[in-house]
């Protein structure tokens, strides 16, 4: 037989007070005496009372919940950002609802509908790879729900954002390859409608230009940047009459794919080909050779995103002014791009 769910009415009846008084005591209302608060909380523990989060949100106007939307939580970069968000949220008394879009626009839209129904106090999101229209995010703004974008951000949307300096990260990575003597540097790029990949492309081109090296469109390959995309891109580059002597990859996963094909083709990395990734995923240090990468300060990014959404939740809507935080990238140099 299913156990009866304890309600506010049950606690009120046991203490001979009103359900309204129980609700106020549980929410630490300043007009309730400490004696009543202690008695209510003690009885709630005895009854193993679990509050209805949505009902509580309707009564108080706050759910103490922050929704987080990431493309994939199993990618180390995103899991580290989530950790940073949770640390900041928990410290402020908020819990996090984690969701994954799997780079699906349809799922992204469904998630936002669910978060609105759950009455979250704010949302932190990284855009899906296929997202090109943003009406579902407009819905959050229309409902007055604070929204912060991180990493895969949307510019000029009237919300706060936090990202790494993708231009600088790409520029410095390519400049390092130039300093190692590379002259024909390919780029495994992301989709140009996304702000971060657009900026990495700009950094790549600017670094080549400043080194007086030509920018060749045949050396630039766009994809989703998964491991298999890195393999396919590398195969395409190796078919060229004049092969590249280095590859700058906009993700570590595509860099691994490129490295796999290089090893299968008996191409020695870094002696014959150098490879540089982006994101500093943990696996990059375990490979042989280790893959050089751009670190994005993921936990700090999470802390910052959490702080931005909490500022908006706690602040006045009329005084809100979007903030754009740009973090400094760090080059992590390993054997794939350096002759030791």
Description:
With about 350 residues, this protein is an alpha/beta fold. Helix content is about 45%, strand content about 15%. The chain has helices at about 10-15, 20-25, 35-45, 55-60, 75-90, 105-115, 135-140, 165-180, 195-210, 225-240, 250-265, 300-315; strands spanning about 65-70, 95-100, 120-125, 145-150, 160-165, 185-190, 220, 245-250, 275, 295, 325, 330. The chain has a six-stranded parallel sheet with strand order 2-1-3-4-5-11, with helices on both faces. It has a four-stranded parallel sheet with strand order 7-6-8-9, with helices on both faces. A two-stranded antiparallel ribbon has the order 10-12. α1 (about 10-15) packs across α2. The radius of gyration is 25 Å and the shape is elongated. The N and C termini lie far apart (about 70 Å).
Question: What are the SSEs and their pairings?
Answer:
Elements: H1 8-15, H2 19-26, H3 34-46, H4 53-60, E1 65-70, H5 76-91, E2 95-100, H6 105-117, E3 122-125, H7 135-142, E4 147-150, E5 160-164, H8 166-179, E6 185-189, H9 195-210, E7 220-222, H10 227-238, E8 246-249, H11 252-264, E9 274-276, E10 293-295, H12 298-314, E11 324-327, E12 330-332
Parallel strand pairs: 1-2, 1-3, 3-4, 4-5, 5-11, 6-7, 6-8, 8-9
Antiparallel strand pairs: 10-12
């Amino acid at each position: 037989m299913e156990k009866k769910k304890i309600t506010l009415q049950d606690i009120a009846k046991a203490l001979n007070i009103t359900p309204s008084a129980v609700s106020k005591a549980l929410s630490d209302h300043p007009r309730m005496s400490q004696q009543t608060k202690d008695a209510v909380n003690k009885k709630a523990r005895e009854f193993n009372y679990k509050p209805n989060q949505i009902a509580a949100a309707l009564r108080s106007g706050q759910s103490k919940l922050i929704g987080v939307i990431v493309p994939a939580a199993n990618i180390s970069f995103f899991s580290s950002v989530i950790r940073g968000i949770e640390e900041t949220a928990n410290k402020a008394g908020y819990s996090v609802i984690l969701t994954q879009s799997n780079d699906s626009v349809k799922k992204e839209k469904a998630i936002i509908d669910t978060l609105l129904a759950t009455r979250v106090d704010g949302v932190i999101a990284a855009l899906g790879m296929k997202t090109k229209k943003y009406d579902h995010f407009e819905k959050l703004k229309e409902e007055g729900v604070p929204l912060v974008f991180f990493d895969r951000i949307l510019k000029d949307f009237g919300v706060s954002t936090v990202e790494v300096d993708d231009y600088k990260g790409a520029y410095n990575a390519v400049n390092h390859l130039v300093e190692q003597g590379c002259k024909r540097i390919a780029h495994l790029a992301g989709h140009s409608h996304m702000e971060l990949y657009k900026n990495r492309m700009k950094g790549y081109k600017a670094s080549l230009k400043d080194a007086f090296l030509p920018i060749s469109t045949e050396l630039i390959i766009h994809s989703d940047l998964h491991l298999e995309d890195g393999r396919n891109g590398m195969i395409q580059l190796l078919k060229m009459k004049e092969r590249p002597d280095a590859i700058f990859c906009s993700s570590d996963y595509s860099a691994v794919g490129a490295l796999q094909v290089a090893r299968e083709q008996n191409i020695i990395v870094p002696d014959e080909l150098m490879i540089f990734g982006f994101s500093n995923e943990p696996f990059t240090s375990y490979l042989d050779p280790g893959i050089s990468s751009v670190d994005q300060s993921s936990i700090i990014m999470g802390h910052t995103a959490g702080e931005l959404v909490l500022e908006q939740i706690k602040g006045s809507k009329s005084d809100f002014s979007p903030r754009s935080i740009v973090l400094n990238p760090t080059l992590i140099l390993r054997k794939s791009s350096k002759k030791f």
